[in-house]
Design brief:
One of its GO terms (molecular function) is pectin acetylesterase activity. InterPro entries: AB_hydrolase_fold (IPR029058), PAE/NOTUM (IPR004963). Its main location: secreted. It contains 13 helices and twelve strands. By secondary structure, the protein is an alpha/beta fold. Strand 10 (389-390) and strand 11 form a beta hairpin. Helix 1 (3-14) packs antiparallel against helix 2.
């Protein structure tokens, strides 16, 4: 009770002959109190609702799906033969002729068995894809949360071929109905976007996350060749710098896996010839063997302790039969000193492989010391008050400065756990550690 309620109760007690009057007074005050409480609660709920709406606005805007039906006649299809798809949020104002074409990630399939396991999922069929995706971070339409690119045309290309958009096998086995046509999907999507206005692009960025980040690296020069010569084209690879290292058991599994991906999908002819003329096609799936020959300006966003690579390249389940790495892979804070030592070794290997990027002024990088994977498409890691910084700079600022030639940006963070701004990923205990 408030002091006012106590005072009313005391008055009621002291005046028994005016009970009805004071009882009425008490009821009025009591009702007034509850009314004010209801108003206060309504105000709190309204404030909460407004905060949630602002948060949703900050965190993402829903964008519907577009199916590229015309691609089917060209054989540019998903693993199951369905048409490719993308989500397109149109630009406005000064950004109307600027384009971001982003390629989704989701691993790879390396043989008929693993491709069949993807065929009837969103990673192999546009029939299984969500019809709406949320755009935030690098794709946000908010000037506050994406100051350099908010008014651009922003496209997320869905991933349904399993080869980082590099495959092209003409034959289709009727028993499996698997189509290995990632390179055709890439060409068909770009052609469709050119017809929708990208042919007038003043600025264009090809980007991607994870397997899509690798696609942005492998297709960087190809993308530029498909756009008008007057367009300023640059490439952005987020978590796409996969390295060729042995796992904790000493096996060279990722090299074998990539070689099988390239063989299954017939990718060799769509990998950079500057690499395949020197090395086996499987080795040309690794950025470290390709990046030095890329002529189009390119920026790399990567965690030195890339969580996907730690989980699937350094310590995959096959190399860890007793599950000793399971807890560590789910949460870096649960790693033993020995495991952290192995992960520091992975960082050393990563930086050595990353050295292949060289010192060209057209290349830039933001390599943080975080346990993370894909950081451009999430608002909390792209640009927010608590976003990760390297060299006192957020990812959004680094990419914007580099793209607009305000200043070069090439920063490599110190070793874990030195960066307090990191958003280190923690994975659900009930889910498999593989993504």
């Amino acid at each position: 009770m408030t002091n006012e309620d106590v005072s009313v109760a005391a008055t009621f007690y002291k005046a028994p002959f005016k009970t009805s009057i004071h009882l009425h007074s008490f009821q009025v005050h009591h009702s007034s109190f509850h009314f004010r409480m209801k108003i206060t609660r309504m105000g709190q709920w309204l404030s909460l609702l407004i905060c949630l709406l602002l948060l949703l606005k900050a965190e993402g805007v829903p964008v519907g799906i577009t199916y590229v039906q015309s691609a089917v006649a060209k054989g540019a299809v998903c693993l199951d033969g369905s048409p490719p798809a993308y989500h397109f949020h149109k630009g406005s104002g000064a950004g109307i002729n600027n384009w971001i074409v982003h390629f989704e990630g989701g691993g790879w399939c390396n043989n008929v068995t693993t491709c069949l396991s993807r065929r009837d999922t969103r990673l192999g069929s546009s029939k299984k894809m969500d019809t709406t995706l949320s755009f935030s971070g690098f794709f946000s339409n908010s000037k506050k949360f994406n100051p350099d690119f908010y008014d651009w045309n922003r496209i997320k290309v869905r991933y349904c071929d399993g080869s980082s958009f590099t495959g092209d096998v003409e034959a289709v086995n009727p028993a499996t109905n698997l189509h290995f046509r990632g390179a055709r999907v890439f060409a068909a999507v770009v052609e469709d976007l050119l017809a929708k206005g990208m042919k007038n692009a003043q600025n264009a960025i090809i980007s991607g996350c994870s397997a899509g980040g690798l696609a942005a690296i492998l297709n960087c020069d190809r993308f530029k060749s498909l756009l008008p010569t007057t367009t300023k084209v640059k490439c952005l690879a987020d978590a796409g710098y996969f390295i060729n290292v042995k796992d904790v058991s000493g096996a060279q599994r990722i090299l074998e896996f990539y070689s099988q991906v390239v063989q299954t999908h017939g990718s060799a002819k769509y990998l950079p010839a500057s690499c395949t003329s020197r090395l086996s096609p499987g080795l040309c799936f690794f950025p470290q063997n390709v990046v030095s020959q890329i002529s189009t300006p390119i920026f790399f966003v990567n965690a030195a302790y890339d969580s996907w690579q730690i989980k699937n390249i350094l310590a995959p389940g096959a190399a860890d039969p007793h599950g000793q790495w399971r807890e560590c892979k789910l949460d870096i804070k649960k790693c033993s000193q020995n495991q952290l030592g192995v992960m520091q070794g992975f960082r050393t290997d990563f930086l050595r492989a990353f050295g292949a990027v060289g010192n060209s002024p057209s290349k830039g990088n933001f390599v943080d010391g975080c346990y993370a994977h894909c950081q451009t498409g999430t608002q909390e890691t792209w640009l927010r008050n608590d976003s990760p910084v390297v060299g006192n700079t957020t990812i959004a600022k680094a990419v914007g400065d580099w793209f607009y030639d305000r200043r070069p940006f090439r920063q490599i963070d110190c070793a874990y756990p030195c960066n307090p701004t990191c958003h280190n990923r923690i994975f659900d205990q009930n889910k498999l550690p593989e993504e």
